[in-house]
């Protein structure tokens, strides 16, 4: 049932026309329709489809019946005849009725962005949890549209939009699908419970967890691999990673933490889809630190960064400390680099630069373990020395005439508790 069309040769690739309807709502959303269409092309490519052309239309509101205007629909039809395209992929979500009407008029398979993403997910999911989640998302997506899709999906035997539960499930009725959804949720609960148990155990053992999050293709898996020498799949494809992968990472001080890779985010990811991947992304929600990886070389980096921040908020991970990792600086323009926000919570790296990877490990260490501070305490002040021992871990101890020199890995909360008593004795060092 779960067939894949990825690895087939180019000869028999399904041909598709991309369609984007730029409504007032789309304009207001702040998304750039041109870039969104480029992204849709990458998604189609990832799903193994050959994009032969694309069409854009401006309309205040979508046409109720055909989504695009009737004239545009005819244009799509003519273009399909000319190019041999059998599929039209829409960048916006369609209703079941619109899909049915378009299928009938154009005699083409009609797919929208969400379906395409779900299709890629279906081909990528490897773990039991991932597979269950994708099927759940596909069925939840199909259910309200069921009446609109029967014909073409059952007629066409394969290709995009038919992977996973599509063909066989469509022959059954809504009731059957609802039952299956209930069953999937039950199975997911069990799987999630097991994983929570593992996670709980790790937390009890005091293991620090760091999660890589970010827009799809930002370089998360590459970073995981470069930082931990893990053998993970990194590809110039969207959604190369679907299941969370965790690896041990050894920080410069020798401390060991767990670093987790997560599924990439994308704009217009439907809310119910986010919910379906909630469990996977919960890893991110429970992390002690998030590394938000940004593809600095992308002209859409700011928008992508915003999308990720919004989804994190939705996932309830808004309060977790974040280190923004501006990645791919080796291929970023001077202009792009000059426009980046700076500051303590950001770092610029190329995944392929060893020096940068060392700096990143140090930056992670600083955030997890706190800053290193030097205190110069008069030898006579045993009370203050004792206090120093309470604000963190003393790494080095030395004396200089009648001074006690204590180098401490400061725990921010304990430091706060100590009040201002130690402030005058703290040596503020210049950054090396
Ligand atoms: N030039 C350059 N390319 C990079 C860098 N980091 C990653 N890449 C490339 O970017 C592409 C995407 O990398 P991945 O690590 O698969 O990206 P990801 O964020 O895991 O993507 P998804 O799993 O799809 O969300 C690959 O072709 C990498 O080789 C970098 O620092 N410089
Ligand atoms: Mg990845």
From TrEMBL:
- All residue ranges annotated as the Hflx-type G domain in the record: 208-372
Q: Give the molecular function GO annotations.
A: GTP binding; GTPase activity; metal ion binding; ribosome binding
Name any cofactors this protein relies on. Mg(2+)
- Which GO CC annotations does the UniProt entry carry? cytoplasm
Compartment(s) of residence: Cytoplasm
The alphabetical list of record keywords is: Cytoplasm, GTP-binding, Magnesium, Metal-binding, Nucleotide-binding
NCBIfam families attached here?
GTP_HflX
Assembly information from the UniProt record: Monomer. Associates with the 50S ribosomal subunit.
Q: What is this protein called?
A: GTPase HflX
Taxonomy of the source species: Bacteria, Bacillati, Bacillota, Bacilli, Bacillales
Task: Give the gene that encodes this protein.
Answer: hflX
């Amino acid at each position: 049932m779960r067939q894949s069309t990825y690895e087939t040769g180019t000869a028999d690739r399904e041909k598709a026309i991309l369609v984007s309807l730029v409504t007032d709502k789309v304009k207001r959303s702040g998304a750039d329709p041109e870039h969104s269409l480029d992204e849709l092309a990458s998604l189609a490519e990832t799903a193994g489809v050959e994009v032969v052309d694309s069409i854009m239309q401006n309309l205040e509101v979508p046409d109720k019946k055909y989504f695009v205007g009737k004239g545009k629909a005819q244009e799509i039809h003519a273009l399909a005849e000319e190019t041999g395209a059998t599929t039209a992929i829409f960048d916006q979500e369609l209703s079941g009725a619109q899909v049915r009407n378009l299928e009938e008029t154009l005699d083409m398979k009609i797919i929208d962005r969400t379906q395409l993403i779900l299709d890629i997910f279906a081909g990528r999911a490897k773990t039991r949890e991932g597979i269950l989640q994708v099927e759940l998302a596909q069925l939840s997506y199909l259910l309200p549209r069921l009446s609109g899709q029967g014909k073409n999906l059952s007629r066409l035997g394969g290709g995009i939009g038919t992977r996973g539960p599509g063909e066989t499930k469509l022959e059954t009725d809504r009731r059957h699908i609802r039952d299956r959804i209930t069953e999937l949720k039950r199975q997911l609960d069990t799987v999630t419970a097991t994983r929570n148990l593992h996670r709980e155990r790790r937390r009890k053992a005091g293991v620090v967890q760091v999660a890589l999050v970010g827009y799809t293709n930002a370089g998360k898996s590459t970073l995981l691999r470069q930082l931990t020498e893990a053998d993970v799949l990194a590809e110039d494809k969207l959604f190369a990673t679907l299941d969370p992968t965790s690896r041990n990472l050894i920080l410069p001080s020798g401390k060991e933490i767990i670093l987790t890779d997560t599924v990439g985010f994308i704009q217009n990811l439907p809310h119910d889809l986010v919910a379906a991947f909630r469990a996977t992304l919960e890893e991110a929600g429970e992390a002690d630190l998030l590394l938000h990886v940004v593809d600095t070389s992308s002209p859409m980096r700011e928008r992508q960064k915003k999308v990720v921040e919004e989804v994190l908020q939705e996932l309830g991970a808004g309060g977790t400390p974040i280190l923004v990792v501006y990645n791919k600086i080796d291929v970023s323009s001077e202009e792009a680099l000059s426009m980046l926000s700076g500051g303590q919570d950001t770092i610029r790296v190329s995944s392929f630069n060893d020096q940068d990877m060392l700096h990143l490990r140090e930056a992670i260490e600083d955030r997890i373990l706190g800053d290193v501070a030097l205190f110069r305490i008069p030898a006579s002040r045993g009370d203050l020395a004792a206090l120093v021992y309470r604000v963190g871990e003393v790494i080095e101890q030395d004396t200089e005439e009648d001074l006690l020199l204590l180098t401490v890995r400061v725990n921010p909360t304990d430091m706060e508790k100590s009040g201002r008593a130690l402030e005058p004795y703290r040596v503020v060092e210049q950054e090396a």
